Amino acid sequence: MERFNPKLIPDTLLLEDRARHVLNVIIRIADDDHGGIPFFSANLMEKPAYMRHGDWDYGSSHGRLVDALVLARHMTGVTDGLEVEERYRQNLLSFFKEDGLSYRQKNPKTKWEPNANMIDQRAVILALTSWYMATGDRKVKEAADKHVAALKRIAVKERDVWYYSNSEYKEGGWPSANAVQLRLAPDPAAFCGRLVMPLLKYYEVTGNGDALELCEFFSAMIVHRSGVFNPDGSFNDSLAYRSGHFHTRIGTLDALARFGYHTHDASLIHFVKKSYDWALTWCTSFGWTPGDMHEQAYEHETCSLVDLIATGITLARCGYTEYWSTVERFLRNHLTESQLLDLSWVEDLDDTSCDDTGLKSYFHVAERTRGAFAGYSAPNDFCCDVANGRGHTSDLQTCCIGSGTRGLFMGWSNTVTEQNGTVSVNFLLSRGSQWLDVHSYLPHEGKVVLEVRRPLKRLLVRIPDWAGYAKVEVRREIGDDVRYQSGKEPSMWVKQRFLVLGEAGEGERITVTFPLSHRQTVEKAVGQEFIAKWRGDDVIHLSPEGVHHPFYNNRKVFDQAPMREGDYRRLERELYW
């Protein structure tokens, strides 16, 4: 990696800065009094606030956090907390039994039953894949190969589909042989569909044939036999399907989209797009998602939003370029707004006198959770405490911390992409890269400056839908040569919204300007209505205002973008997920 001397850059959203913040909570939620096991949840509304352990502490939480640490360190280069990361990694490996599966452990304060939970297995192979991609560690590959072989071995195999017959596997077999005989596969999306995403990546990285075979049979089961998705693309909301749980459904769409892209299966991409478009009708245009279609409908999980981000990116890469703008709205708004940076409203304790070791801690909760992403939030409030649904439950969950980090990474790694000599700027977010630097002045000004770092054969930059084309202007400077281009030129546009800049020379500075949109929308969220005021793709005011820790209404916007000293992280070799 090459670093340059500090210079002035726009003081606007920088995803790698957000990744630095999330590293704080990932490292500091480790419970030193309980073997370094991370706390799973936190109640920040309670006085004093506390963090709590849960039965997700093991394969699920460790898998999510190991994956998040790999991605956040790649984005930032920060090496703080390496000893905590090593403990997470060793804990994760210790949860494996000889059968190759990851098992939940006993807790001295609860009656949690050790089992290989099938939701946990997805987080485990996700972490092992990222870990191996980052380090090439052979022991990690050995563990992952054994894990994939176990996932294949325990799958119930029909003629054309495979599935898991229960949510928990016990040493020696499935808890219910009758469930196998009657094909009572519980929630196929949660236990099989979402597994396709990390399994496919593991196959791409290692060529593991078992991983690809699992992807093929699980995908076929979801699309053709499961009933998770209705023929019109809507989610099956029956109780047996977790009331149409959004995280597991959209996570499954993410997996299917990736598999469709990998196999060039247009029918599978069409299947995903139909359901994705239906899901968007249940979400706000700034990225709030329901928890499910019934009991948890009012509780947004950051996990669901990140699934929307990842699925939208894959659909955009498949040619549905309109989703680049959808995803940018999500990145600029509810993902980053859901990150906990201001904790002045949280009350905690300065000592451990009230802690219940192995279960709860009240100690420095505010500072230890800084950088976390919302576990359950309302559209206008970090804390969800509505009269409908379940009322207030908790505010943070480790799964959402891991997912939020992955969402930052997906936005960061897809801001600038290269394929067959064409470099595309897909998101108008500040970002450094080996090809060029993107300086975004949004939402203050309708301006993006590109500084080209090496000769480019063909350069494209996406212009927002609301900017039009007639008033898009381009100024290109290289040395003493200055020339101008206009969006009015017909040959300047491809893929609906991409401005064609053609060849670009090393050292060239390209300034693209366009009018900012000022508009107001009515956003519907499970029967509730909110008025959102927009400046470009950023929500700058939302009403009615939240009660506990309101969203959106403290954003500062100026006529000219503020500047700060700084620089971007640039890598010659990047991880791609």
Structure explained in plain terms:
With 577 residues, the chain is of the alpha+beta class. It has a domain at 15-417: Alpha/alpha barrel (Glycosyltransferase). It is built from 15 helices and 25 strands. It has helices at 15-28, 59-76, 82-94, 118-135, 138-154, 177-181, 188-191, 196-206, 209-225, 246-263, 266-280, 302-317, 322-337, 365-368, 398-413, and strands at residues 7-10, 30-31, 37-38, 41-43, 50-52, 116-117, 156-157, 162-163, 168-169, 360-361, 396-397, 416-419, 422-425, 436-440, 447-452, 456-462, 473-478, 481-486, 493-494, 498-504, 509-513, 518-525, 528-535, 538-543, 563-566. The strands form eight sheets. It has a five-stranded mixed beta sheet, with no helix packed on it. The protein has a five-stranded antiparallel beta sheet with strand order 14-15-21-17-18, with no helix packed on it. Strand 7 and strand 8 (162-163) form a beta hairpin. The longest helix has 18 residues, at 59-76. The chain is globular and about 75 Å long. It starts with 6 loop residues before the first strand and ends in an 11-residue tail after the last strand.
Sum up the structure in keywords:
single chain; 577 residues; alpha+beta; Glycosyltransferase; 5-stranded mixed sheet; 5-stranded antiparallel sheet; 15 helices; 35% helix; 18% strand; globular; disordered N terminus
Which spans have pLDDT < 50 for at least 5 consecutive residues?
1-5
According to DSSP, the number of beta strands is 25
Quaternary organisation of the protein chains? single chain
What profile does the largest beta sheet have? Answer: 5 strands, mixed
End-to-end separation in angstroms reads 20 Å
| Helix proportion range | 25-40%
Tally the helices: what do you get? 15
User: Which fold name corresponds to the CATH topology of the domain at 15-417?
Assistant: Glycosyltransferase
**Arrangement of strands in the largest sheet:** 12-13-16-20-19
Mean of all residue-level pLDDT scores: 94
Radius of gyration over all CA atoms, rounded: 24 Å
At the first level of CATH, the class of the domain at 15-417 is: Mainly Alpha
- Corresponding CATH architecture of the domain at 15-417: Alpha/alpha barrel
What sort of overall outline do the alpha carbons produce when their principal axes are compared? globular
Secondary-structure class: alpha+beta
Share in β-strands = 15-25%
